[in-house]
Write a structure and sequence with these properties.
By secondary structure, the chain is of the alpha/beta class. It has eleven helices and nine strands. The protein folds into two domains: 197 residues, Alpha-Beta Complex (2-enoyl-CoA Hydratase, Chain A, domain 1), CATH 3.90.226; 48 residues, Lyase 2-enoyl-coa Hydratase, Chain  A, domain 2. Strand 2, helix 1 and strand 3 form a beta-alpha-beta unit.
Length: 260
């Protein structure tokens, strides 16, 4: 049985972490498989990428059996493990030129929490919880948490979440801007799938370009960001979807974007 399952539904590719017996905890094979599948998807034709967990839980973070090996491993080797396995996933999610969405049921904790937050959009059922529990087991963060969290909730709140490692219920996570939506459990899949279809039917090139601009603008000054906007806009303006979008607007109808 594959630890990461890939399914296609029209323009949507779904990656499912498939280790429900250990709450989808990440061992090295799972991390490597996720990174490799994301690289394949990046080269493919899908227009939206969904990340989820099997069995009603998103991801319990790193597999405890992997963590127990750290005490007998030298720091340079630990760096190599984290960088080559786990952090490749974060880089691929950030650099994906198509929208990514985390669909969270149950718990998303530690590295699992940061995987969910690294996606462009994160939705959860109301009963789900999120936790940056690294300090609760004596560790500092990995998987991009120190980069992502302050940008989502501000430095004060990020420090609170990291220092305490407390569970954050999905409705509170939505209120603080940690996630986009906390949907009622009974309608979670319907609401999430509606949003996914909206993303998959959108102007994929424009969304990818906008994603790159937002990521760039978060770390650069105004002038360089404005210059980058002008160059990216000039490139995107040549796409078929722009012609369709302008025509649809003029005709008072919904656009039929093809992602081209």
């Amino acid at each position: 049985m594959s630890k990461v399952e890939v399914s296609e539904d029209g323009d949507v590719t779904t990656l499912t972490i498939n280790r429900p017996d250990v709450k989808n905890a990440l061992d090295h094979d799972t991390m490597k498989a996720l990174a490799e599948e994301l690289r394949e998807i990046k080269r493919g034709d899908s227009r939206c990428v969904v990340l989820e967990g099997a069995g009603g839980t998103f991801c319990a973070g790193a597999d405890v059996n992997e963590l127990m090996k750290f005490g007998a491993t030298k720091p340079p080797e630990i760096v190599e493990i984290i960088e080559n396995d786990l952090h490749d996933i974060i880089r691929e999610l950030f650099r994906m030129k198509k929208p990514t969405l985390a669909k969270v049921e149950g718990h998303a904790v530690g590295a699992g929490c940061n995987l969910a937050l690294a996606c462009d959009l994160t939705v959860a059922e109301e009963s789900a919880t999120f936790a940056e529990l690294f300090t609760r087991i004596g560790l500092s963060q990995d998987s991009g948490g120190s980069y992502i969290l302050p940008r989502l909730v501000g430095m004060k709140k990020a420090k609170e979440l990291v220092f305490t490692g407390r569970d954050v219920p999905a409705p509170e996570a939505e209120e603080m801007g940690l996630i986009n939506y906390a949907y009622p459990d009974g309608s979670f899949h319907e609401e999430a799938d509606n949003l996914i279809q909206d993303l998959a039917s959108g102007p994929t090139k424009a969304i990818g370009a906008s994603k790159s601009l937002l990521n760039y603008g978060a770390d650069h000054d105004l002038d360089s960001t404005l210059e980058r906007e002008a160059w990216v806009q000039s490139s995107i303006s040549q796409s078929d979807d722009v012609e369709e979008g302008v025509m649809a607007f003029a005709q008072g109808r919904d656009p039929d974007f093809q992602g081209e």
